[in-house]
Input
Amino acid sequence: MKCILYTSVLLSVVLLITAPQNPKCKPLGQYIFNELYKGGDIMLGGVFAVHFKTIAPELSFKSKPEQWKCESLDIAVFQRSQVFLFAIEEINKDQTLLPNITLGYRLYDNCMNLQVSLRAASTLIAGVDDTMTDSHCNGLPPVVAVVGEPVSTHSIAIMLSYEMLYFLQISYCASCPCLSNKLEFPSFFRTVPNDDFQVKAMAELVKYFGWTWVGVIGSNDDYGLYAIASFTQEVNKFGCIAFSETVNINEKKTVLQVVSVIKQSTAKIVVVFLLKMEVMELIKEIVHQNITGRQWIASEAWSSFAALASNEKFDYFGGTLGIAARRGELSGLEEFLFQIQPQPDPHNSLLPLFWEVMFGCNAEKIRDMRTEFSDVSQLRASYNVYKAVYAVAHALHDLMSCERGNGPFENNTCADITSFQPWQLLYYLRKVNFTNHLGERVTFDENGDALPAFDIVNWQRTADGTVVSKTVGVFDQLTMTYHQLSLQKDHIFWNFDSRTIPESVCSKRCQPGTRKATRKGEPVCCFDCIPCAEGTFSNQTDSSECDMCPLDSWSNPKRTVCLLKEIEFLSYEDAMGLTLTLIAFFGACSSVSVIVIFLVFRNTPVVKANNAELSFLLLFSLTLCFLCSLCFIGEPSNLTCMFRHVVFGISFVLCISCILVKTIVVIMAFKATVPGNNVTKWFGISRQRGTVFFFTFIQALICLTWLMTAPPTPAKNTKYHHAKIILECNLGSVLGFSCLFGYIGLLACVSFLLAFLARRLPDNFNEAKFITFSMLIFCAVWIAFIPAYISSPGKHTVAVEIFAILSSSFGLLIAIFAPKCYVILIQPEYNTKKKMHFQKMIIYFLVVIFWQE
Output
C-alpha cells in the first residue's frame, strides 16, 4: 500500500515539474491544512503533529472524497510549533545573523498521518497544492528547508518521494538509524541522535542496575521495529529479553495483548519504544488492569511527558526512567507564548483550534493557565526544534557570506541568496558548526546526525503534586570515552514499597560455591545454581564452571575456596605416636636391662650355657629393632625414608642371624657330645661371629643396591582421603623392599625349621624350644602384618608396621630371655651346674607365672 502511495506522489511531482507552461493554472482541488503562516524573504517550512488522530473519510466513489479530519490536539507539540516561530522571530531580530534578510514560515499540521504528511511535503516543495497542473503558477513562494517530520516512517516516505529534488529536511524527532544512510537520504538532517545511540544508552542504563530479565515494547513501524531489534542485540550481550511486543495504535487488540504479556511476565523492567499517543493508550490499559510493580524505561519519544503519570497514574508510572534529549532554557520563550492570540486568518488556522481546546470559545488569558504549553522548564524536543531552525539560518548566513571568486561551486562561484538551489544550501548545511547562546555546540556528523548526548530523566512528584521529569544523569558518547553513563543514584525515585532499586532477573545470581546450569529450552538467563562438587570451588558469582582445587588443596564445606589439605603423618604429638614411642623405649630399655643382667651374672651357668657373646649381640640387635621403630614416627623426609628401611632391615637380619647361629650352635653342641665327633672345630666362636656378619652383610648389600637404584622417597598420598594429604615413604623399588623383607623371612624360616628339628634334644639343650617358640611368634606377627598393612589407610599403615616391629621384638626378647632372667633373678638356686635342667626349668617357670596371675 505504501509503495503505491509513494509511486503516485512521485509521479505527481514529476508531472508537476515537467508539465507544459500555460499562461494560467487551474487548480484541480486544494487540500486545506491546519497551518501557521508568515511571509518573508526566505521561507522555512515546518511539519508538526499538532493533532495525533485522524478520521478517514468514507469513499463512495460517486463524488469527490472528503479530506482526512484531524482531532485530539497535543498541547506539548503545539508548544514545539511555537518554538519554531519563536526561533525565526529571534533570528529576524538578530542583526548579526542574516542581516537584511527576513525569514518567513509556513507550518503544517500532519495530524500524525502519512497521507497528510506527503501532501504537506509536496505543497511546501512546489509552493502550491500538489493537484495543480502547472508548476509555474503564481502561488506561495517555496520553502528552502523543512523542519520536521517528527516520525521516522513519514520522513522516510517523504525523502524517498522527493529525493531527486534534494528536498532539505531537518527533523527534531525522527531517530531511525536508517535515515543516516546518505546514499538514500542525502538531504536529511536531524538535531536528535539516531536510535543507535539511544538504544545503546538504554541498554547501558539497564546494564548499570544489573537488570538481566527485560521486556521490550515498540511501535509497529520503522522506528519501533528497528529499536526493538537493536535493543535486543545489545541486551543479549549481558542479559535476556523476557518478551518483545509491538503496538499498533489503530488496533485495540494489540494493546490488550501487550498488556496481557506484561502482566504474565516475571520481568519487572519494561523498555518502551513508543510515541506519545501510543503510550497514552498503553498507560490507560495498564491503569485499567491495575498492573503495578513495574519499572518503566522510556525512550526519547515520550520520556519528557511526565504529565502522563499525573494523579492516580503516578502509582503505576511514577519513577519512570527515560532517555531524553538535552534540555535547553530559552530566554524570552515564556513571554512569547503568553502573547498568542487567536486570529481569524485562514493561514493561521491552528491558533483558533488551540484556543478552543484551551478555553473553549471564551476570551481568556493564556497567562492564567498553567499547562504543558506554558511550561518551559523541560524544553527538550522543543529545544531540538530551536536548534534546527538556527542550523538552517547559519547555513543561509554562510551561503550569503560567500566571497565572489572564492565560492565552493563550479568555477569558484557563489550561490545567490535570492535564487539558490536546494543542493547549494545542502553544501553549507553539512558544514554548519556553531555554538548557540546556551553554550552548546551545534553541528552534524558525516551522516547528518546530531552529536550523541542524552539526559537521563526520572519521573518524580513535586510538593504541589506536579509530576516532572527530573534529570538524574547523562549519557554522552562524545566527551565521555570510558564511562559514557553517569548517574546520580541517590536522586532517583523508585516507585516501589521498598523505595530501593528493583530486581529483574529470571534466576537469582549464583553465589560463590555454586555454578550455573542452564535450563533446557529457556533463555541463558534462566538457570539453576548447582553446588560445586567436593574438590572443586567457585569464588565468584554466576560462575559457569567450578574449578578444580590444586592437588595439595581441598574445597571448604561451602565450596568457595580451596584450603590446604590437612597434612597427616604419624607424629610424636599424636596419642598413637606417643604411645608407640613409649613402648619402643620400654622395649629398648628392657633389652638394655637384660644386657646389664647378663653382664652382672656373666659367670653364672645360665649365662655361660647360652653362648654369652651371641646373647649380647642378639640383645644389642633387639635394642636396635626397638629403636628403629622410632624412624617410622615423624614427618617423612629423604633421609628418614631411607634410614628407616635400612635400619629396620639390617637390625632384624642381625637379630635373626644371631638366633640362627645360636640354633646351629645348639645342634652342634649336641653333636659334640657324641664320642668321636669333632664338630666344634668347624663351628667355633670366630666362625659363629663370621656367620652372623656374613648374613648381615648380604642384607647390607641388598639395602645398598636398593638405595642406589631407586631409594625410598617422601610422597604425598591423596588416595585414601580427599581432604587429607598423607605423608608417607614411597618404596621407590618394590623389588628392593621385597628382597629386604624376603631375606628376613628366609632367615626366620630357616631358624624356625632348625629350632623345630632340635626341639627334642635331651635336657640341657632345650634352648631350641625357646628359639622355636620365639620364631613362631616372629613369623606369626609378620604374616599377620601383611593383610593389616594393606588394609590400613593413612598413618595407620605406619602404625601397623611399628606394631609389627615392636611385637616381634618383644616376642623374641621374652621368649628367649625371660626364662633365663627369671632363673637368674628369682630362682638363683637353679643357676648352678647341678640344677641346670632346662625342661624342668620351663615347667617350673610356667607354673610360677600361672600362679602369680
Q: What stands out?
A: DSSP finds 22 helices and 27 strands in the chain. The radius of gyration is 54 Å.
